[in-house]
Amino acid sequence: MKRLLIVLLIIGVVSVGFAADGTEQGCILEEPVAVTSAGQSPGALQFTIVAKMIKLEYTFEKLLSVETVDISQFKTLVLVVGASGKGLGAANIDIEAEILRVKSLAEAAEESGVKVVICNLEGESRRGPSSDRIVTELAPFADAYFVKADADLDGFFTSFSEEAGVPLATFEKTVDLKDVLAEYFCK
Amino acid sequence: MKKVVLLVTLIAFAFTASFATVTAPTVASSNGMVAAVNNYAAEVGAKILEMGGNAVDAAIAVSFALGVVEPYASGLGGEGYAVITMADGSKFAIDFRSAAPMAASYESLSELGLTLSKANYTPKGACVPGVLAGIKEAWLLGATLPLADLIQPAIDLARNGFIVDETFAQTTSDKYELVLENGFDFLNEGFVWEAGSVFTNPQLAETLERIKEEGIDTFYTGSLADEIEEFMIEVGGFMRKSDLEMYGAIVREPLHGTYRGYDLYVPHPPVSGPQFIAVLNTLENYNLPAMSWDDPLAVHIIQQALVLGDVDRRAYISDPEFYDLPYEAFMSKEYAKTRFMAIDLSQAFDPASYYDYQGNAYPFADGSSYEEVLLEALESVAANESGVEESPSTTHFSIVDKDGNAVAWTQTISSFFGTSVYFKGFFFNNEMYNFASSYRDWDIINLTGGMRPRTTICPTIIQKDGKVRWVIGTPGGGRIISTMVQLAVDLIDFNMPVDQAIRTPKFVGYTTYKDLRIEEGYPQTTLDFLEKVLGHQLNVYSYPDLFFGGPNLVSVEENGLMIGAGSIRRGGSASAPEF
């Protein structure tokens, strides 16, 4: 009973997020899903933990690129945004090259009819100038935004969502993303 | 409901812990002082002082508590070094550095297709932990309270939880991939711990309870040792119960040096006490008090002395149980004069030739003067470089009690999260990586079973006329001695209070770095002078940056007032009992 109550509460929180944005939709995304980082923070890897929870069919590569993968084999591309100096350093890539990589992926996805999701999984801590720049560069390709609520306190993602008329789903805790994924992928 | 209960418990614990103590980034008190990298840990120490414990009691409690609140930086799987000076004049240096398991060797790694580097984040990267053995020796030497009372605050923290701070969250995020692979149980259901969330560690609480009930020996010779062996066999580590059984902390008298009339008590090798003294001896030949902290010439002199000290460290510091090296000559005033002569006041060393400046301390071992030695013009010894890039992990705390007993204690699991191999609520260290990457005939840090690897940590107590004046120390990997020397110069030559000495922007002199890494905050004229006139290649870091360490200091003023200051680079705190 207690568990049911918690689940209902979580769904309520997520639903409020949808309703507030006026973008309540279901089953707009399909599998298989390509997941990559946009900025090399740990967010993309955390996305895969959630994806496993709902048994989403996905492929994850931190440095997925148009040179190494045919993006048209996927139905959805998830770009998990989070610029990390340490992560970029460990991957031996600078921010300019990283932006070029993810923009090329997004362009290729758009050309192939693959839906593009921009995701912020780490909240406010990934709202620095570099992370915001990545979002701004990718915004023209976005078909949906999945955003941790505290990353949108200033309406940064809301404004992109409203301008382009694409849905924005917010969630309070990282684990709550699974409800968003379940909703969008009809899992 | 469970969360509400947890929150209420947490608030109650926080209230209890702070009932008779005051905790803040900088605190003044005459009742005793604890400065540590984390407010919960500092408060635990102050509470022990408030209960009537002395500095050693408080240090033991803080050591346990830090393993709970900063499990990524130190803990039961780690090691360290402590320097203790008691009010009765007795002084102790406790070496609880970890030791290589007997089965560890270049050959055994090679047979498995591994190198030290490849083994770094695996169970094979772990050395035999020493922190509990160090605690035991400290307790036997100077504690007054039952060990059970000193463990209990850590058990409470592990069981009831505490609020995750920015450092905890950031560190977990930085090493998420590694921890996800090896230490899943540490994570928040697979996710990083976010600042503001409540972290509990029931596994560690249970392990600490066992140590409390069965005694520290359970880790080295008892049932916990059996379980460690079982685990290591299962995951493919080198460590066995026999390694734990033969391990022991080593108690010595601290090494002694002086700087402008102050007495410094520092660790023996394989820790960097001699290097710290050697650099200060070199600096003593300059009139630094006539300069200011941001004078480019002062920065140049200190940085060049640090580079020389680091070149020499690589030749003269290793495990003294395995190598007979002239580290006492290295820290002599006479040898320092030769290093003073090597520094060019108008030009920085060429980083490509750092090892050309290797000094020869051997002739000074018999007490010869620098005139005698240089006239004889002896040949120099070969330099060596392990090339290890050390992380800013580790943790240091400083304690002085109302009676004047003092403890400087630095503990670590090497890199943040150590090997990332998680066992019963703690991480095993990755100290093995501090040995030379491969066997070299001339090297003094070749991997050898039972040997303790070299490190830069340097907990230090500074006295004036027999009384404690400052207790200092810092984490920071290869930056430790740079930060330590700057702290000593800032306190002694520039008369800074401890909080200002911590805040002052730092720089590094370290042979691994071919540039001069310096924190923002120096005047542009200073930076221009260093670059354009003296020929340093600058690498300016934002301010404050954890890269430069996280010192936590205590000063004792002439009137007996103690001032504690926590690191601004890692959210440190000072805490004092109110009585």
Automatic annotation (TrEMBL), chain B:
InterPro entries: GGT_bact, GGT_lsub, GGT_peptidase, GGT_ssub_C, Ntn_hydrolases_N. It catalyses: an S-substituted glutathione + H2O = an S-substituted L-cysteinylglycine + L-glutamate; an N-terminal (5-L-glutamyl)-[peptide] + an alpha-amino acid = 5-L-glutamyl amino acid + an N-terminal L-alpha-aminoacyl-[peptide]; glutathione + H2O = L-cysteinylglycine + L-glutamate. Its EC number is 2.3.2.2, 3.4.19.13. The keyword NADP does not apply. The keyword Repressor does not apply. Pathway: Sulfur metabolism; glutathione metabolism. GO terms for biological process: glutathione biosynthetic process; glutathione catabolic process. The active site is at T394 (nucleophile). Residues 1-20 form the signal peptide. It holds the Pfam family G_glu_transpept. Cleaved by autocatalysis into a large and a small subunit. One of its GO terms (molecular function) is leukotriene C4 gamma-glutamyl transferase activity. Keywords: Acyltransferase, Glutathione biosynthesis, Hydrolase, Signal, Transferase, Zymogen. It comes from the Bacteria. L-glutamate binds at R97, T455, T456, G477. Belongs to the gamma-glutamyltransferase family. PANTHER family: GLUTATHIONE HYDROLASE, GLUTATHIONE HYDROLASE PROENZYME. This enzyme consists of two polypeptide chains, which are synthesized in precursor form from a single polypeptide. This is Glutathione hydrolase proenzyme.
